[in-house]
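TICKET: design request
STATUS: open
ATTACHED STRUCTURE:
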């Protein structure tokens, strides 16, 4: 690795930072996961699949994902109009990353929970005096 001068652009210090910003925002990952795993969806189908997302946030995230080239929006001029969303080729290229993260989660999330519990048992909670 090479050293990054103090005050340099954080993206130079961590070249994956832009990817994390694009892919790992709160709702992006569940949307991409759903479209990759279950295929093309209408808006209401995505709402039902990701039950805790609001329609406003789902609309915003889908627009951003379309803008980023990770989702394709198809408008069908029918009565009533139909709009479908599917993961793009670029979005599908993230599949190995998601698979690796799913494998890591299966192997290590229990360890993370154990570490948290051990830490919390020995550290006072924020705002609590020891």
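STATUS: resolved
RESOLUTION: sequence designed for all positions
ATTACHED SEQUENCE:
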């Amino acid at each position: 690795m090479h050293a990054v001068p103090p005050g340099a652009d954080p993206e130079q210090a961590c070249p994956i930072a832009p990817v994390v910003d694009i892919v790992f925002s709160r709702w992006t990952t569940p949307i991409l996961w759903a479209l990759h795993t279950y295929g093309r969806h209408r808006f209401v189908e995505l709402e039902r699949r990701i039950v805790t997302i609001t329609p406003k946030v789902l609309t915003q995230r889908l627009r951003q994902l379309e803008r980023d080239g990770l989702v394709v929006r198809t408008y069908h001029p029918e009565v009533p109009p139909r709009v479908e969303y599917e993961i793009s080729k670029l979005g599908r290229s993230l599949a190995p990353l998601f698979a690796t993260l799913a494998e890591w989660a299966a192997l290590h999330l229990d360890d993370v929970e154990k570490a948290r519990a051990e830490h919390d048992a020995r550290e006072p909670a924020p705002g609590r005096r020891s």
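CLOSING REMARK: The chain has a mean pLDDT of 88. Helices lie at 10-13, 17-23, 28-38, 43-49, 55-67, 89-92, 95-122.
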